[in-house]
Design a protein that fits this description.
about 0% strand, mainly alpha, disordered C terminus
Length: about 325
């Protein structure tokens, strides 16, 4: 297990380095000039002169070769310095320190909700003998699978906030009020549900249903029932442990899917996370902040995949031995 962890950690590090290189190169090739954007913002939208743009580009080091700029950024990044925001003039780490916890909170809540609900619904679909119940689950999953995430978010916002006023419409607290645990929980419900029950939810349910359903009539499960083991023991030990391996392996990809949707969700629900910062940085061509957001996002996804592989190795020793043999 230690060898597996070391190999996967090394692979994750290489993935993060490659991601930072690709992001840096793509932003450098993007149209527009950050120096011109900064000068226009400072002057209230008036176009900047070529001389002023050239002077600011020299001050920001934008005229240096791409490799030199990336190396300068990378050597600072490994020491925890991700640069300074072009627009605000603040350290990027300070901005991330304010927004990253909110994104992590929303992502964690949506992940727990999505996986717990998928586990419950998938087990019901796999173990029930009632045809009408399975068809009802199939119908609900079909509707959810065909609905884009932003449509689901807007629908929840209209039904529970605008029409019925049962839930707050956005933010983390009411205007002018401090953030409290109860208020934060109330504001977290709608964005977490919108993110958790997207089109990916049906995939999780199917993974649980298929993995557990194929073992339902297996000989070792039948023998466990014949020996008089309690139903809970049969389900948890003989069905869930081996049957949830495909579902658990999807954990890393699932977190990546949630991260991809969290930014749009944050904008819709005015959630003060990295999503709003990323969109603002893209509009302003604030490359240091945008690179940092992409890098942190990649780190979260890579870490989730690493955790998923380790959990699969614990649940299924064959996967662990197979990975060791492959290495």
């Amino acid at each position: 297990m230690a060898l597996l962890l070391a190999r996967r950690a090394a692979t994750a590090l290489l993935v993060v380095v490659a991601l930072s290189m690709v992001c840096f190169a793509l932003l450098d090739a993007a149209p527009g000039d950050p120096a011109a954007s900064i000068l226009e913002a400072r002057s209230g939208g008036r176009p900047a002169t070529a001389a002023a743009v050239a002077e600011l580009r020299a001050q920001m080091g934008l005229d240096d070769p791409l490799a030199a700029r990336y190396w300068r950024w990378a050597t600072h990044a490994v020491r925890g310095d991700l640069g300074t925001s072009y627009m605000s003039g603040r350290p990027v780490t300070a901005t991330l320190g304010e927004t990253l916890p909110w994104t992590l909170l929303l992502t964690a809540a949506a992940t727990v909700l999505s996986f717990a609900a998928a586990l419950a619904v998938g087990l019901v679909a796999a173990l029930t003998r009632r045809t009408w119940l399975r068809r009802g689950i199939d119908l609900v999953l079909f509707v959810m699978g065909g609905m884009p995430g932003f449509v689901a978010a807007l629908l929840l916002l209209y039904v529970f906030a605008a029409a019925t006023h049962l839930m707050p419409s956005g933010g983390v607290s009411r205007p002018g009020e401090p953030v409290t645990a109860y208020g934060l929980l109330a504001h977290l419900v709608l964005p977490a549900c919108a993110l958790a029950f997207g089109h990916h939810f049906g995939i999780y349910v199917r993974l649980v249903e298929t993995g557990v359903g194929r073992l339902r009539d297996a000989p070792h499960v039948h023998n466990a029932r014949v020996r008089g083991l309690p139903r809970r023991t049969v389900v948890t030990r003989h069905l869930m442990r081996p049957g949830l391996v495909p579902f658990t392996a999807r954990l890393g990809v699932g977190v990546g899917t949630l991260i991809a949707g969290v930014y749009a969700t944050e904008v819709i629900f005015s959630w003060p996370g990295m999503g709003r910062q990323a969109i603002a940085a893209a509009r302003a061509q604030d490359y240091p902040l945008l690179v940092a957001v992409v890098l942190v996002t990649g780190l979260i996804v890579v870490a989730a995949n690493l955790v998923a592989e380790l959990v699969v190795a614990v649940l299924d020793p064959r996967a662990r031995s197979g990975q060791a043999d492959a290495g």
